[in-house]
Amino acid sequence: MNEEQPIIESTGDCFVSVRFRNEINAQINNKVHNLFKLLSDNSNIGILDLIPSYNSILIQYNPTELSIENLIRLIEQNLSALETTETKQTVIEIPVLYGDKYGEDLDFVAEHNNLKPHQVIEIHCSPEYLVYMLGFTPGFPYLGGMDESISTPRLTTPRTLIPAGSVGIADKQTGIYPSESPGGWRLIGKTPLTLFNHEQNPPSLIMPGDLIRFVPIKSINEYETLLNLVKTNKFTPNKNIKNDA
Fold it and tell me: What is the distance between the alpha carbons of residues 145 and 131, in angstroms, rounded to a whole number?
């Protein structure tokens, strides 16, 4: 089999996986999310759920409505269409208040990397981060693109409770805690945005395939103002569409 050709295989009575090359990069991940969008079409009767990851997608289907032969045929048709599918990504701005009680590990991250705290913030806010997948807890984005100059090891002993909205670093990755949970990431800041709300559709503000840009909040007053606007549904984060040929 051509190594460029994805592997399609049954993984249970009602599951099929499509696995691209066994590596992690933006090009392969974009193929995963473009296939996800094509298969999400409402006309694809019998597909129950689609679960994208770094380099594969797991498809749950109803075999009484869609045979595995027809599902594989549908997958192959959509794989053929990937080369001509335009990649459209949503760029979401995430405001973050860095340091102090909102990011108590910022000074450690700076010291670990021989930087000043303001340099860590500047570096952290520079890239557009690709959302490779959601996992760990509902809405938790696994982001690619962090500058390794601020890479910092996880805590030796994880915290038992991290506030929702906390922005952290773990080794070469950065992420945002969408809800209160235990965790061992180094906390550098906090966003007032609500990342996950099960009463909304979709429940997650951030979706796989999106791009994230962190924007520093300049003061506690600005943070509190944004937080109040979020709580009263009067604040909408900036979202822009980015097209790549």
Answer: 9
Residues 92 and 239: beta-carbon distance below 8 Å: yes
Alpha-carbon torsion (202, 240, 92, 31), positive or negative: positive
Which sequence spans correspond to the domains of the chain? Answer: 7-85, 89-244
Asked if the model's pLDDT at residue 244 lies above 70, the reply is no
pLDDT average, residue stretch 15-44: 88
Is pLDDT above 60 for 156? Answer: yes
- 1: pLDDT strictly greater than 70: no
Q: Could you confirm whether domain 89-244 is CATH 2.40.100.10?
A: yes
Stretch 10-23: mean pLDDT: 91
Bridge-based pairing state of the strands 211-216 and 87-98: parallel
The alpha carbon dihedral of 69, 75, 79, 80 has a sign of positive
The CATH architecture annotation of domain 7-85 reads 2-Layer Sandwich (3.30)
Rounded to a whole number of angstroms, the distance between the first and last alpha carbons of the chain is 28
